[in-house]
Amino acid sequence: VVECSITGSNRRCGGQGDLLSGSMAVFLHWANMWLTQNPTLVAAYAASGLTRWCNRLAYSRLKRSMTTSDMIQQIHQAFEELFGKE
């Protein structure tokens, strides 16, 4: 069992699962290109972490009024903070 230790916020909004599944697809594609062991597990961890970090960033700015669209606005910053630049 692998558990993502990255925390988001307690706010959940409709469409958040779409962000998770879309990022999972991208990470799985990348993982399959570069990894031979556990690419699905690595992709799931990365997608979960990215979604949680986007949630945290959006919530810190907008509190309870945040929506999934606000989370999407945070993808660039969250990705760079979690995985670095290029």
TrEMBL record:
The keyword NADP applies. The keyword Membrane does not apply. Its EC number is 4.2.1.93. It catalyses: (6S)-NADPHX + ATP = ADP + phosphate + NADPH + H(+). Residues 1-82 form the YjeF C-terminal domain. GO terms for molecular function: ATP binding; ATP-dependent NAD(P)H-hydrate dehydratase activity. It comes from Nematostella vectensis (Starlet sea anemone). This is ATP-dependent NAD(P)H-hydrate dehydratase. Keywords: ATP-binding, Lyase, NAD, NADP, Nucleotide-binding.
